[in-house]
Amino acid sequence: MSSEGDLLHVVTADQISDRRRRFGKTIVWGSAGLLFLVAFLQAADHNGWLDIGFETWRPTLYAYVLWGICLCAAQVIERGEHGKRTLFVLPATLFVVSMVVFPLLFGLVIAFSDWNLSSPDGRQFNGLDNVRQMWTDPFYWNALKNMVYYTLAIIVEYAIAFGLALLLNAEIRARKFFRVAFLLPLMLSPVAVSWMIGKSMLENRFGPIARLLRELGVENPSFFSTPEVARMMIMLMDAWTYIPFMMIMILAGLQAIPRELNEAAEVDGASVWRKFWEITFPLMLPVSITAILIRIIFKLKLADIIINVTSGGPGGATDSVTSFIFREYRDRSNVGYGTLLAIVYLIIIAAAMTILIKAVDRWMRPRY
Amino acid sequence: MKVEHYNAIIRAQLSRRKMLKGAASVGALAAMGGMAGVPSALADSHGNLRAEILKIPGVGKGSPTDADWQKVGEMTLGPTKERVAEGEFEGVELTFMGLNNQNLHNFLFRGFLKPWEAYTGAKINWVDLAQADYNPRLQQAIATGTVDFDIIEMGAPFEGDTAGKGLLDEMPDWVEEQIEADDLVGYLQPPVGTWDGKKYRITIDGDCHTFAYRKDYFGDGAIGGASVPRTWQDVNAVSKALIGKEDPLTGLPAHGYLDPLKGWGGFGFYFLENRAAAYAKHPDDPAWLFDPETMKPRVNNPAWVQAIQDVFDLIAAGAYPADQINADPGTTGFQQFLAGTGSMLMWWGDIGSNARTSDTSVVGDVVGFGINPGSDRVYNSKTGAWEETYNEAPNMAYLGWGVYVTKRVSGDAKKRKAAWSAAAHLGGKDISLWMSAYPSGFQPYRNSHFQFDEWEAAGYDRAFIEDYLLSNAESYNHSNAAIEPRIPGIFQYYSVAEDELAKGYAGQYASAQETADAIAAAWEKITDQIGRESQIALYKASLGM
Fold this sequence. Notes:
The complex is a heterodimer of chains A (368) and B (545). Chain A is an all-alpha fold and 368 residues long. Chain A is built from 15 helices and 2 strands. Chain A has helices spanning 18-46, 58-79, 81-87, 90-111, 129-135, 138-169, 175-187, 190-201, 208-215, 227-255, 259-267, 272-300, 304-309, 321-331, 335-364, and strands at residues 113-114, 124-125. Chain A has a two-stranded antiparallel ribbon. The radius of gyration of chain A is 28 Å and the shape is flat. Chain B has helices at residues 3-11, 16-32, 37-53, 66-75, 78-83, 106-120, 131-143, 159-162, 173-178, 232-241, 269-280, 302-317, 329-337, 350-355, 413-426, 429-437, 452-458, 462-476, 490-505, 512-530, 532-542; strands spanning 93-99, 123-129, 151-155, 194-195, 198-199, 202-203, 210-214, 344-347, 367-370, 378-380, 385-387, 395-396, 401-405, 482-483. Chain B is globular and about 65 Å long. The two termini of chain B are 43 Å apart. The model of chain B is unreliable at 1-42 (pLDDT under 50). Chain A binds chain B through residues 114-122, 139, 203-206, 220-225, 227, 230, 309-317, 327, 329-335, and chain B through 132, 135-136, 139-140, 142-143, 161, 164-165, 252, 262-266, 321-326, 328, 335-336, 339, 341, 488-489, 491-492, 495-496, 499, 502-508, 526, 529-531, 534.
């Protein structure tokens, strides 16, 4: 056993022969060569240059899997103990590359294509035409504007979630029951929420809420007729589903605050409000920011309730970007344009979230 | 031949050769007129079969179950047995792609085809899809060259996408004989089901929108006036006149015509078409959605604009129930009309079959049927002028479901025969009677479906069934029926039109004309994207031009 090198992380330092290293290199390059060969033959067959009889792209997939196995094996063959450490990450990396990075690249190709599934010409590269179309598409901009409203509603959701978390953190009767009861909406599928609430309880003729309002003197209660009310109802249903999620995160944070801090403040004579504003709220900021960021990500994906209840109406007032892309892609088979919209949305989300995280990070960093 | 008879022959060790010889002798005798009683006996047993299957499970005796479907499937195997020997398709596996709407469609087909599988030895694998998933699944399979099904339940509007791209197998002549295709109602005869003169479709459904109205709203002293509205002008006038009155059945506010103002994945556009058909479908012109020479949309011509304006007028007058802007066709049909809200509606035949059988319907005793209302004037696209003459044009919305066989089986004679045999079993004359009389998702579509005595004998109320069936029959056989264009991407046109209409109904466009112009502009884009020249050719072909 060697007494040199990284003794902290490596148990043994292998003596690896040149022959073994060459073998490792050979299987990696050999399988890579095979992969390229099969992919080339497959492409040639697909484009009609050769007639090999490949019906699907499976041969290329198998060659890729073989290359992946050889690459992993070669780590150990060539580098011994060091290679074994690599194996903790490499298979997962290869999997992510195949399932995320490659489809994303493929998606980019589609995004710059004119591809209507009904077109006899199939997919055609069309440069920036889809971007130009997006730029002048009032439906997309309207949906983006709606997303701003939906996202801003998170501030109210956060306040409610914080209040509920404080209540559940207090010494109240049946606390465990309420904790479970308040979590129930989160366990429901948004599709179920849309049908149970949006389509049944809020049904304007027989729905119990409409009946109650009628009893209270509202002549024709309607929940989805005007843009503002319809948007508000969608926000409420979505909030009802996801407030428990924020609440449970905040509650976990509240329970982690050391009791001594509040006790010390009490000894100093701090009021309830002072204790909250000077101790609880600042200590809860990291948890709050995390909860809000995750909630924003959830909110930006909002679609199911809208698709089920309003289909984006009235006149696009409740449309979200995802529900619009859903119609463009699924109802109209406009794959190229739909993909471009999705990718632009992804970029907007990634950029906005990065900026937000940076800003929050700077704001929250303690300054001594 | 019934199953038990066939089994008896097998038990008696009668060989297939002997059996065929016997059948040939019977046929020869019959041809010579030597057995005068045979044809009538056969007809009697056939008539008995139809009466017998209509007793399964019996009208008013609950919804049919899988056991009932299997029983019907077994009793109607006769035509299959005439053409296929027992066990002939041993080892054949077929994939059938269809819908699972309301637990019907594929659920029935499974039951119907179980005895067929047992008899022929073939095995069927099923791909069940929800209605909303159907279009994208089919489009993706076509576009990516991954058609992984041998038999498909498909609507005629998709013939452009499939037959037009050479993905379907041509129907053999024996299938046409087995299903007795000449019994189909007029509008389902070719060119529907054909492409470039070749036949591809086994029809299992007929589709058209018919007019349903509340009889208690109309008549002497009734709140809607003495007679049922005959034109769309009347429909609008009555709808406005009913504002502020009370529904005679429910005591809630009375309403007139129910337009769905929310989209339904493209299907909602059919409902504007109902109004537009009377104005835009000129008897001398088969086209009414596009100009067949240029594919220029007609959706913004004065006829279509009038249809949109009619809806705008009712919105402005406050004639619709509250929240109508959020009502899709499912809502207008099932949550409003059948539940007692509103007095007039256009829908598929489901309203008729549900009015008396659905637990949620309250209008069973007061519902009447008719064909699509007409108009006092019709727009002539060729002259660009209105003609002051009465016109009516029933909307053949969707043209009904059919069963098609894909090219996947074309290279294998045994598999091909098996696929067509399975499809033909579902499209048989007798099984179709059962499907049109019981919950199946399919409307009557054969001339033989309109023998009212059969329905009455099965337990239906004569007056109700005559009213309901005649509204279908008169629509199907109308000389100026508005036929669905079977062009690729037709639902893309409808879907984008729904989005623009929603904006118009919400007041985001200044006028009906502006709304119609926005639809036309979106349609032009789709045509350019799919390919104008090919669309022109396919549109003309689909209209039989």
